[in-house]
Amino acid sequence: MQIRVNAESAAFYRAGKVEHMRTDRRLQTLLHTQRNLMNKEFLLYIGVNTFDYLGSILSYIVIAIPIFAGVFNSLTPGELSALISKNAFVSIYLINGFSQLIDLSTTVSDVAGYTHRIGELREVMEDIIKKQCDYDPTSGESFDFDSDVEHRANSTDTAFILDRLSYKSPFSDELLVKELSLKVTQGNSLLVVGNTGTGKTSLLRVLNRLWESSSGYVEMTSCFGPRGILFLPQKPYLTDGTLREQVIYPLKDIYPVAGSPDDERIMRFLELAGVESLLKRTGGLDEKVDWNW
């Protein structure tokens, strides 16, 4: 629910990898708990069903032994049939027990349906990943926030190049901006103004490749990440977790990976932001909190 409500904010941070890691960790915990529950229920069902079937089978054995032993040889066929019919309810009960095994086939079909839908979801997610732009344009390689590898620096101070760019909302056919050309360079401030709904935020979505452009050319000439370009969403997104995870988000580990976590640097940044009191409220950088940030 938290990711769905804040999907765009997390996307601006390009936090897909860290959210995938955190979600996968929670999923593994859930699967482990569910596996333990299934194992315990399995043993319980074996015990219950064994007694049910054993009682039915024993009832047939009890009536069969004296019949084949000749105890009821003095009975006429009619009387013997009447005796056996008295135990008919046992047979019905036994058949009902075995019919439960047949009913399990419907559960298996449901599981097959769920598996098929999960497979389709994975295929769609893989297609989305292939269309994402979490890479360094200068090298064409995927960019990892936590990578300690130095990326090649761009020879120019240009961050974005737009040439006759036109774009629209994915939910509308009307163009928001038509044939926009500009360069975003280091050291120069750029203010985008306009009325509500004219495409200001949409421009950032196109630059960050959250939306596809309708026509024209757009290039991010610098890498995305702490050494290059970062996007700040309109709606701040605070993930759940420790104070350290809030500060370094969307990094999975402290940046850079090599070396011990730089606690002093984090505390200095907290003081600069005027929120050093959070250290006392949370009990430290790595203490888990139960309240919503």
Q: Would you give an account of this structure?
A:
There is one protein chain. About 7% of the residues have low confidence. A hairpin with a 6-residue loop joins β3 and β4. It is elongated, with a radius of gyration of 33 Å. The protein has 293 residues and is mostly helical. α3 runs antiparallel to α5. The strands form two sheets. Strands 4-3-5 form a three-stranded antiparallel beta sheet, covered by helices on one side. It has a two-stranded antiparallel sheet with strand order 1-2.
Mass-distribution shape = elongated
SSE ordering? HHHHHEEEEHEHHH
**DSSP strand tally:** 5
Q: Which runs of at least 5 residues are low in confidence (pLDDT < 50)?
A: 133-141, 145-155
Percent of residues in helices comes to 40-55%
Gyration radius over CA: 33 Å
How many helical elements? 9
List the helices and strands and how they pair.
Blueprint lengths: L1 H4 L1 H6 L3 H53 L8 H9 L2 H44 L3 E2 L4 E2 L15 E11 L6 E11 L14 H8 L7 E6 L22 H6 L14 H11 L4 H5 L11
Antiparallel strand pairs: 1-2, 3-4, 3-5
